[in-house]
Design goal:
The chain is of the alpha/beta class and 363 residues long. It has one domain: Aldolase class I (TIM Barrel), CATH 3.20.20. The protein has 12 helices and 12 strands. Strands 1, 2, 3, 4, 5, 6, 7, 8, 9 and 10 form a 10-stranded mixed sheet that branches. Helix 4 packs parallel to helix 5. It is globular, with a radius of gyration of 20 Å. The termini are far apart.
């Protein structure tokens, strides 16, 4: 009976993969059936997710980097976040100069990043904060070496339009989790507040980067909800974060780390649901995936965050470059030029000095 069930799941995966490869979008019930994959069936799921990635996105990958321009003392109570003023963590409030932001952007370009984002703590930006950020965005847009992106919290339609006029090309604003699970993660603003910001950014002509954090106590139904909502909202880039439990936050004791294969299964499921989107693996990959980090591409991912995270260090860019060399994968930069990772990066481009003092953040 078990063998028959295994074969049934295997047949289902290959049938749905064929449908996706032919251009059909799967529905909720079909996505739910994919979550039944267990054991050896997971390798079939990964195999076909990779085929879908290659068909719709290609074999090349992209890098993204972001830096926290304003850190800490946030008014919001997101249960995963060490920057919230509601929790006692090791984060101290701080703010970067425009020159420091420019230095971080230069480092991102040297690492091969196609996109670079400025991230602010807080519910949303003030006019004074937009004035402060404007010179950086205008210069980055004029130079044209990296895509200027912003993660500034809630935006009004007027603010979104102003950011677009500054040269910002993409807004990151994650849904974080499903509408159903959201009240157990955030209480100081609503799920609909997040949706409105995404809609305002889209109306202003900005590309949308929006995803979630997984491992916060949600179930598979929640994960499917997020993917389908993002498909409906038209997200261009979907960051997949895995909870990195920070001491002092409510989720530190409430949740356990995801198993690596469950994290990969989430990536594969999202590739089936969002076949042509850029799936970006961001926060938590070192902690959760450990030795399986290179499997993200086999499971369907097409980009990842390179550099450090919000209040924790990521692994070195050189290690990530080596991973791509070992996988014989190329990467593309903002100008859509495809590159091979150089054999030596320690003394030239595509290298970032270790121990940077700039707080680089998770998407």
């Amino acid at each position: 009976m078990t063998e028959q069930n295994d074969q049934s799941v295997t047949d289902l995966i290959s049938r749905l993969a064929a449908d996706v490869l032919a251009g059909r979008l799967i529905n909720r019930d079909e996505a739910r059936k994919l979550t039944e994959a267990r054991g050896d069936d997971l390798y079939d799921l990964f195999y076909w997710a990779n085929k879908i990635r290659i068909r719709f996105v290609g074999r090349h990958v992209k890098f993204c980097s972001i830096v926290a321009a304003k850190v800490g003392n946030c008014s919001e109570d997101c249960a995963f976040c060490s920057q919230s003023g509601h929790f006692k963590t090791d984060v101290s409030p701080g703010k970067l100069s425009v020159e420091q932001m420019e230095s971080a952007a230069e480092q991102a370009v040297d690492n091969g990043a196609s996109s670079f984002g400025i991230v602010n703590s807080g519910r949303g930006p003030t006019d004074a904060e937009l004035d402060w950020l404007e010179p950086f965005f205008e210069k980055a847009a004029a130079e044209g070496r990296v895509r200027p992106c912003a993660t500034l919290g809630e935006l009004t339609p007027q603010q979104a339009a102003r950011l677009r006029s500054m040269g910002v090309l993409r807004i990151n604003h994650n849904l974080e989790t499903s509408r159903r699970h959201y009240p157990s993660i955030v209480t100081t603003h609503t799920y609909d507040d997040r949706v409105r910001t995404i809609q305002a950014a889209r109306a202003a002509g900005l590309s949308i980067c929006s995803g979630g954090i997984f491992g916060m106590g949600e179930n598979w139904e929640d994960r499917i909800d997020v993917a389908l909502e993002l498909r409906e909202l038209g997200a261009d880039v979907v960051p997949i974060n895995f909870l990195n439990r920070i001491d002092g936050t409510p989720l530190h004791a409430r949740c356990e780390d995801l198993h690596p294969t469950e994290a990969l299964k989430i990536i594969a499921l999202y590739r089936f649901i969002l076949p042509d989107r850029e799936l970006k693996i961001a926060g938590g990959r070192e902690v959760v995936l450990r030795d399986l980090q290179s499997w993200i591409f086999f499971a369907g991912a097409s980009s990842f965050l390179i550099g450090n995270y919000l209040t924790t260090f990521g692994r070195s860019p050189d290690d990530d470059h080596q991973m791509l060399r070992d996988l014989d994968l190329t990467f593309t930069t903002f100008d859509e030029v495809e590159h091979e990772v150089p054999l030596q990066t320690a003394s030239g481009p595509l290298h970032a000095a270790a121990g940077t003092p700039l707080p680089v953040v998770q998407a």
